[in-house]
Each structure stands twice: as structure tokens, then as C-alpha cells.
């Protein structure tokens, strides 16, 4: 019996191997199997939808042979997805719908990783992945689709390769650029369902508007710190993002993972749930989270589901009298509307001080080398200061600065006492990226610390321009 089981196992493995070779060959002849100009073949679809590909639907790869029955699933699909087929509520019909669906995942980061992996594994017909960024080492703790070998390479390529390694029978489309109003309509239009796995406010509004204009359900997720949330917009009468938030929140209320941190598993949990909702919408199985929002609190291990209001009749985009057209969409300035950038790379930088109140990192380094008496005030939060700091700097977080001016006064006095010169010590202020330090200098100057100067670009510039060994985070 054991020998027979072994033989069976061996034959199945051999069949899988043959199937995958057949698929590889088929994909090399991809042009004849998929619409002209859209074949992704074995991974050559990079940016395929970004050009003038027109509005054709995302191609779903179909096999020319191996069908078990005229209306049944191909034999290799039956074996691969047998655990799905065994589910009475899902079954052959669910799997067939999945294999005929096309899903676009916007963002190949912490949320997008599990979304793309699960959607590839479970056999969606066509999976599109959009992301303009490259893989960075500090992504890997949560963006589990990427491997170390891909650091410095395109996230989309990395994610698509990982998906193809899991399931070579699906079509994976790569869009290696940031989704923006002038390319969003053309890409989104090719897909049945959109998953928002991005992490910034302007993109959230943009994807929602785009989905309303093209009438696509939107699986929206967010994760920050130790909390996450999830809902399905614009589906079965559920609202769009603008129905819930007609006006963007003030800039100060918007946080990002790169500023506030995120525990790696949290986007993983939300991303898995997004994949689940996408599968439910694609197959019409179960009750999608439309009109409801799931809130996840990792610390207390609590999941709450709250009802949210239905679509608003006065919504400027999906409301009854909305005059918002595709043309308006393409011209809409989402960054200006939300007062925040679409990409981390263009994080907002303040410029509120006169040039005389600022020095570059290199200038600061020179005066340290020249032995100029001074005090370096670091205004980052204490837990940032613990990550890394410049030696001999004094940490008073910006939020506590006003109430701790006495402490600063004392430190300055100590610096004076230790100095042999009569010249009062100068005061330099640093933070992580050079924004908070400007606010601090403005405050300090108002409070009489007239020598306070900002170090331009903060510790990020320090690491870049002066000390390459200084840890970047
Ligand atoms: Zn709306």
C-alpha cells in the first residue's frame, strides 16, 4: 500500500511538473492566446497597461486542453483547488467565477503582500499589481511578498514573480508606476474589482473616485501602528469614500507608517481580510463588508464591526446629481485637495525660517570640527531618540519644548560655564527630517533664544551628507 501511495505521489508530482512546462510553453506562445498587445507571457508585461493599450479587459489565460468535461474545470485545476471545490458554499461555481475574474491590487506593500499572494494562490484569472516603488530593506518586516534578493528592485516585479512562482496558471499584469489620475482610468477599467492597498490619503480619494466613475467595487484597507480597518466601498449600495469623508481631515491627523510605525503583522491581518473580501465579491459567496466597517485592534485582539451610512445622495462623486466626470477626475489635484503627498518620497517639507536661521549638515559638521561651543537640541520624540542620536545632544521632544525651556536654559548655561570664551554658546536644533526642528526654532526665537538655528534636512541629511554610518530609520 505504501509503495502504491508513493507511486501515486510521484506520478502526481510528475503531472504537475508536466503541466507547468506546458503552461510555460503556452505562455511563450502567449500572443496567440491573449489579445494583441496585452499578453504578459512569462513576465514581460511590465507597465503593459500604462501605454496606449486601450480599454480591453485584463486577459484571462485559458487553456486549450485538459478539460475534464465540456462544462467542468480542467483536471489540473480540480486537483490544485480541490479544497475550495470541497466547500459546499463555494464549490465548482465559486472556483469558476474566481478563475474568470480580474482583480487589481494597488500597492505591493504591507497590505498588498498578502492580498496578492492569496489572490494568486486561489486562482483569480487575472491579477494586476500597481506600484511605482522599489523594495527597501525596511519594507521586509511587513511586506512579506518581497525577498532580500529584490532589495533595490521594482516592487511590482518582485511581487509578480512571487505570484507566478505560486501559481503559473494565472495571468499577472505588472504596472511599475504610481497610480495617478492620468493613468488610473485606463488601468482600473480593465479589472472587475479593485483592492486599495495603499497608505496615503490622496490616493485613497483618487481610487475611490475612479471606482465610482467606472462602477467597480473597491476593497479598501488601512493599517497603522497597532490598528487596522477594512470595508467594501461602492458595492451593493454601500457608500464611496467621499460619502463618508466629503472633506479630508486636517493634515496633522494623517499619519503614515513611515512616521508612526506599524507592527508587521497588522497589515498582514488586514491584507488577508482584503483578499477574503475580494474573493467573496468576485464569487458572490457570502456577505461582503459593504455598508459595514471592520476595526481591528491588535493590542487587545479585538475585532469590531460597525455599520456605516449608506451612499450619500449629495455626494459630489457618487450622488444623484453628481457632475463629476472622467475629465474632471483626470484634472483633479488630489494632493492639493488633501494637502498631503501621494508618495512617501515627496514627504512635505516646511520652509518657514529665514536663511539666516538655518545651516546645512555640512556647515554644522564644520563648526563642530572647529570646536565651536554650542548645544545641539534634538526635538524628536524620546523613543526616536533611543533609536539613534548624535553624541552630546540634548533631547527635548517638540511637544514638551515649551514647558521645558528652563531645562534648555540650564543646559546652555552649563555649556557656557565649561567654555573658556565669553561668547555665549550657539544653539542648533535637529529632528528626523528637518520639519519639526524649524517649528522648534521658530518657537525658541519667539521665547528669546535668538541664536537658535535649524539643521536643514535633519538626521536624514546628516546620514546622507556627513555620517554614512548614522542609522537611517
Ligand atoms: Zn459617494
Automatic annotation (TrEMBL):
Residues reported in the UniProt entry to bind ATP: 110, 131, 138-142, 155, 199-200
Main location: cytoplasm
Cofactor note: Binds 1 zinc ion per subunit.
Domain Rhodanese: 370-471
Keywords assigned by UniProt, alphabetized: ATP-binding, Coiled coil, Cytoplasm, Metal-binding, Molybdenum cofactor biosynthesis, Multifunctional enzyme, Nucleotide-binding, Transferase, tRNA processing, Zinc
Record's protein name: Adenylyltransferase and sulfurtransferase MOCS3
Coiled-coil portions: 1-28
Location of region: Disordered: 34-54
A GO-annotated cellular component: cytosol
Role: Plays a central role in 2-thiolation of mcm(5)S(2)U at tRNA wobble positions of cytosolic tRNA(Lys), tRNA(Glu) and tRNA(Gln). Also essential during biosynthesis of the molybdenum cofactor. Acts by mediating the C-terminal thiocarboxylation of sulfur carriers URM1 and MOCS2A. Its N-terminus first activates URM1 and MOCS2A as acyl-adenylates (-COAMP), then the persulfide sulfur on the catalytic cysteine is transferred to URM1 and MOCS2A to form thiocarboxylation (-COSH) of their C-terminus.
Catalytic activities: [molybdopterin-synthase sulfur-carrier protein]-C-terminal Gly-Gly-AMP + S-sulfanyl-L-cysteinyl-[cysteine desulfurase] + AH2 = [molybdopterin-synthase sulfur-carrier protein]-C-terminal-Gly-aminoethanethioate + L-cysteinyl-[cysteine desulfurase] + A + AMP + 2 H(+); [molybdopterin-synthase sulfur-carrier protein]-C-terminal Gly-Gly + ATP + H(+) = [molybdopterin-synthase sulfur-carrier protein]-C-terminal Gly-Gly-AMP + diphosphate
Gene name of this polypeptide: MOCS3
Localization (cell): Cytoplasm, Cytosol
Residues where Zn(2+) binds: 240, 243, 315, 318
This enzyme's EC code(s): 2.7.7.80, 2.8.1.11
Gene3D superfamilies per UniProt: NAD(P)-binding Rossmann-like Domain, Rhodanese-like domain
Any one GO molecular-function label of the UniProt entry: metal ion binding
Chain intervals with Gly residues compositional bias: 40-54
Active site, UniProt feature: 257, 431
Cofactor names: Zn(2+)
InterPro entries the record matches: MOCS3/Uba4, Rhodanese-like_dom, Rhodanese-like_dom_sf, ThiF/MoeB/HesA, ThiF_NAD_FAD-bd, Ubiquitin-activating_enz
Gene Ontology biological process terms from the UniProt entry: Mo-molybdopterin cofactor biosynthetic process; tRNA wobble position uridine thiolation
Pathway this chain belongs to: tRNA modification; 5-methoxycarbonylmethyl-2-thiouridine-tRNA biosynthesis; Cofactor biosynthesis; molybdopterin biosynthesis
Family: In the N-terminal section; belongs to the HesA/MoeB/ThiF family. UBA4 subfamily.
Top EC class for this record: transferase
